[in-house]
Each structure stands twice: as C-alpha cells, then as structure tokens.
C-alpha cells in the first residue's frame, strides 16, 4: 500500500490536506480516501486540485434571508482568496435564519443552527472553515458550532444594508421601523405615509443598518479576533466588503497551514475584549446572551456582576442608533472597529491572538492612521458615560436581569410604580390596546412567559408596546419588565432577561397587578415590594406548569434549554466542566 496514491499517510495521498481527515468509514482508511477522491473528481476536480489545504465555506444564503442576499458574491470572493493562497475552496450549505421570518422566534433556532454547523464541520473533510453569517442569530450560531468543533475557523460577516431616505430623512431598519410604527399607532402619521416609509427602511441586501444585534455580533466577532482586521463594518454591497471576503479566504489557508485552531483565538482574554466592545458600542442586549453562549462552548462562564463593573468604566463611544444618531455605513466611513479599538486600547488585552496569527495590538499597529471623524467618540467625550448595559439584581430577578441604560429615558431609571401584569403574549395582544385597560403612565408594565421555555425561545417581545390610549396622550416611554429579550434596534426603559423566568417558577411568575415594583438603575436594583411569605403563599396557591412537548426539536429545546445567564444554550452542548470565569473579578 505504501506506493498507493490512496495512502492517507503519504504526502499527496491526502495527509497534508483535509481530504484525509476523519477517514474512519469502512474501517479501511485507504478505501475511504479512494472513494472520497473518486466522488470529488466526479465534480470535475483533478488530483492536483486535491493536493492542498481544503477550506470549507459555510454558505448560509436563503431566499428567506435578505440579510444574506450578497451570499453568492461573498462565496465567489472567498473562493478567489482561497485559490490565490493555494487552497481548495469547497462550499457547503447549512441552515440560515432570517430574523423576520423565523417562527416562533429566531432564537428558538439558533442552537439548531449551531448544531448543524458543528456537525457539518466534524463530518466533512476540511482543514479550515470560513463561516459566512450576518443576520442576528447566524454569527453566534456559527461561532458556537465552530467553537465546539475545534477546527481553524474564521468569520466573514455579510455586512450591513444601506440606509434609505423617507421624505428627505435618512432611515434604516429597524430603529426607524419602530419609531414610525409608534407614530402610526399614536395617529401621528397616516396609512399613506406608513406605506411610503415601508419602501425605504431596507434599501439593499445586508443586515440591519443600526447597532442592532447583527451589527453588535459583527463587532464582537472582530473584537474576539475571529474576523480579518476591519471585517465588521463594510456594508454588504460595497467593494470593501468583497475585498474583506477575498482576504478572509486567503487567511483561512494560512490558518489551515499553521493549524491555528479556534481555541487559540477564543481565549478568556478575547472574551473580555469582546465584553468591552459590547459595552462601548452601546450594543444589543442580545449580545450578552450570545457571548455567554459562545464563551460557554469554550468552558468559560461570563460573570454578569463583573460585566457590570466593567460597564462603569467603559463609556459608550459609538454614535449609532438606537443609542445615538448614525448608521453602520457611517461607522464604516469613520474607520469602523479600528478606530474604536484604538480608542479603547488602554482597556483591552492587546496580546490576544487573532485569526491572522498576529495579536490585536500588532494589528492596531499595522492599521491605517487615525483621522478626524464624528461617529466614534473619544473616551473623554463619550455618547454615554458608562457602558450601554447595566446588570440588575433583586428579589424579582435573583439570577439577574439587564437594562440597556443608554437607550432608556433618564427620568424613568429611578422609578417606583404599580405593576400592570400581562400573563403572556396572547393576554398582551388581547388587552394592550383596549380603552378599558386600567393603566397610567407611571405604572410598570410586566409581561410573563416570554423566557427561554415560556414562549418558547425567549422572543423579542420585551419591547412591550405602550398601551394605545397612553400613546395617543403622548406618552413615549414607560418602565417595562419581562423575562424575554428585545431587539437590539429597540429603545426605552426596558428590563429584560429576568432570571429565573416565570415559566419555571421564577418570582416574576407571581407578580400581580397592583403590586409595587422598584427600579433603581443607579443601585442596580429591581425589587418587587411584596414579602417573601406572600410570594411563597402565591406559589403554593397557583404553582406553574413547566412547558413541555411530546416530540421533535421542540421537545429537545424544552427539555434542555438553559436560562439567560447560561446563554440559552442547550445544556448538553456545553462542556461538562467550567474552565474559568470571565472577566476575572
Ligand atoms: Fe437580519 Fe436585522 S433582520 S439583521
Ligand atoms: Mg434584531
């Protein structure tokens, strides 16, 4: 066998290439390689083409995902980059999740996509993988799956959409979607205008144009060292985005040759850098859940209290909606992550390794020089003096809750009020617009049963609409509390991710209309002003029935999904042991 071209150990027989990875089928490695090569030659490839690193390209194009609408061009550019560097690109599909089309919520499917990604990386022969994602859940799903698979992996972001123009005003999805819909609900604009703005909100393919979850995860991926430098910001339809894609392919080949596996990049220090960036960009609250889940796959536990401490010394610097004014295309023009990371330098671990094989600090040294711009502020002139997200605690949320303080009304951040409770989404839909609803602007809206198991999938319903009768009176914000999430593009004084959730018997499940609740962002407090004895009495009187299902993915989900403080990952996908806590206290 030693002279055989199908000897897996022989250079050229496949040893230096991904073609020989995992040859365990049939119990005969030589035969397995023989078959593998026969079938890939069936696709028109020669032996010469196979004698080099194989770079998998995870293609997540889908007609249901306009945020990935530039996928064909991206794949082509990645393939070019791979071939220019002497590798063999092989694209393969995984499921794709488009935020607006996924029921019951995209979060319900994130772990499924992570499992698809992980298992396809394990199953198929490749030396490294380029993960192409963009829409909210796709980048976290890919990073979670790749973290578990352990190969050399690099993230390519699809890029943001362009902004549109409505009657002379710049608009973009989806902070403006909510703002205009709010005006329509309050009868401030008519049916013609709401139809006009609908044509303008999504001006091209690509991800939402504000600092929503997609942009947040793009910035986090770059902060983690998982993209090429400057990989987060270029919009989807620009030549800069295509050049990033080509470079990504080239770097993937270098990573394959150097065996730069993902564990060398996704270190505790990289996660700490990503937490800084999440705070400094005024990022989506979903970013915490996703970062917790990705870190969890590497055995790291994110310490929410420490994140809050970091927040007190990390100002919001990026002036993008919903916390600020601008859009992703402006962030790109302002130098994107390079400008931001340079400003954050004293707060970062510059020795963290990136996919290029160089450290974050080395990449910043190599980057283009700074220039004057007005989208990314300096630390002495921030958009908001603290990090965008504060972590709350109290008897209403023993496992923690969060608030995006940079997008909240300062007048409501210290507030005590009467709870007006909705038992779930159906109850909310049935009563929120009723003229008979007993509610005042000072009340606190409480929505139950939208946690990980509750809805299920922790939908983005935490942005509870203001009761129509109050909206018509000109009320713009109220304190709202739930165990759900909210879109990264939303704004308001909104307490989210209350843990444990109501559906599994968390205290939130026992709040009743008329109870008093106290929110103090300065004290990081969320308290239900009801005695422990009374809560225990209510729990005994009407115990919760934890949701369950008989079969299928829903059963897997309900049986194994964890709470927000564990990233809403499935318990069996996390490694059995915690390696470390991030950040160090
Ligand atoms: Fe895909 Fe917003 S809907 S990024
Ligand atoms: Mg979103």
From TrEMBL:
Residues 374-567 form the Dihydroxy-acid/6-phosphogluconate dehydratase C-terminal domain. Pfam families: ILV_EDD_C, ILVD_EDD_N. Keywords: Iron, Iron-sulfur, Lyase, Metal-binding. Residues 52-362 form the Dihydroxy-acid/6-phosphogluconate dehydratase N-terminal domain. PROSITE patterns: ILVD_EDD_1 (PS00886). GO terms for molecular function: hydro-lyase activity; iron-sulfur cluster binding; metal ion binding. Gene3D superfamilies: IlvD/EDD C-terminal domain-like. Belongs to the IlvD/Edd family. PANTHER family: HYPOTHETICAL DIHYDROXY-ACID DEHYDRATASE (EUROFUNG)-RELATED (PTHR43183:SF1), HYPOTHETICAL DIHYDROXYACID DEHYDRATASE (EUROFUNG)-RELATED (PTHR43183). This is Dihydroxy-acid dehydratase. The lineage of its organism: Bacteria, Pseudomonadati, Pseudomonadota, Betaproteobacteria, Burkholderiales.
């Amino acid at each position: 066998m030693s002279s055989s071209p199908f000897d897996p150990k022989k250079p050229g027989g496949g040893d230096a290439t991904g073609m020989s990875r995992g040859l365990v089928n049939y119990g005969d490695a030589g035969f397995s390689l023989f078959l593998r090569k026969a079938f890939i030659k069936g696709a028109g490839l020669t032996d010469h083409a196979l004698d080099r690193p194989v770079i998998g390209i995870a293609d997540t194009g889908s007609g249901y995902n306009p945020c990935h609408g530039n996928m064909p061009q991206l794949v082509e550019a990645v393939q070019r980059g791979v071939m220019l560097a002497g590798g063999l690109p092989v694209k393969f599909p995984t499921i794709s999740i488009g935020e607006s089309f996924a029921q019951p919520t995209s979060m319900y499917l994130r772990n499924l996509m992570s499992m698809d990604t992980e298992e396809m990386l394990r199953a198929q022969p490749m030396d490294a993988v380029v993960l192409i994602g963009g829409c909210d859940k796709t980048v976290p799903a890919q990073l979670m799956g790749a973290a578990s698979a352990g190969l050399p992996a690099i993230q390519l972001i699809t890029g943001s959409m362009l902004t549109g123009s409505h009657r002379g005003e710049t608009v973009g999805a989806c902070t403006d979607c909510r703002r205009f819909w709010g005006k329509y609900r309050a009868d401030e604009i008519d049916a013609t205008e709401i139809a006009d703005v609908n044509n303008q909100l999504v001006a091209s393919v690509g991800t939402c144009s504000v600092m929503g979850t997609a942009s947040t995860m793009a910035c986090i991926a770059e902060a983690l060292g998982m993209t090429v430098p400057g990989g987060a910001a270029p919009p989807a339809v620009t030549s800069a985005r295509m050049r990033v894609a080509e470079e990504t392919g080239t770097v993937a080949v270098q990573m394959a040759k150097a065996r730069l596996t993902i564990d060398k990049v996704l270190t505790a220090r990289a996660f700490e850098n990503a937490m800084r960036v999440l705070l400094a960009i005024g990022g989506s609250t979903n970013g915490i859940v996703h970062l917790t889940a990705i870190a969890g796959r590497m055995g790291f536990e994110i310490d929410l209290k420490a994140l809050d401490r970091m927040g007190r010394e990390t100002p919001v610097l990026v002036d993008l909606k919903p916390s600020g004014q601008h859009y992703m295309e402006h962030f790109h023009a302002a130098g994107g992550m390079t400008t931001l990371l340079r400003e954050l330098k004293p707060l970062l671990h510059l020795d963290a390794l990136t996919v290029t094989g160089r450290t974050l600090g080395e990449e910043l040294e190599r980057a283009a020089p700074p220039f004057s711009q007005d989208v990314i502020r300096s630390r002495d002139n921030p958009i908001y003096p603290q990090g965008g997200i504060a972590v709350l605690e109290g008897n209403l949320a023993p496992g923690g809750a969060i608030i995006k303080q940079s997008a909240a009304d300062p007048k409501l951040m210290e507030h005590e009020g009467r709870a007006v409770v909705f038992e779930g989404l159906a109850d909310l839909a049935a009563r929120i617009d009723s003229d008979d609803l007993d509610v005042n602007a000072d009340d606190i809206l409480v929505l139950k049963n939208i946690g990980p198991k509750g809805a299920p999938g922790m939908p983005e319903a935490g942005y509870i609409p203001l009761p129509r009768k109050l909206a018509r009176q000109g009320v713009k914000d109220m304190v709202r509390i739930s165990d759900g999430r909210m879109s990264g593009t939303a704004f308001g004084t909104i307490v989210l991710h209350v843990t444990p959730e109501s559906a599994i018997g968390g205290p939130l499940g026992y709040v009743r209309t008329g109870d008093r609740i106290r929110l103090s962002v300065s004290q990081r407090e969320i308290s239900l002003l009801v005695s422990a004895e009374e809560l225990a009495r209510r729990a005994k009187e009407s115990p919760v029935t934890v949701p369950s299902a008989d079969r299928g993915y829903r059963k897997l989900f309900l049986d194994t999904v964890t709470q927000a403080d564990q990233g809403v990952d499935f318990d069996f996908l996390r490694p059995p042991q915690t390696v470390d806590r991030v950040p160090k206290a």
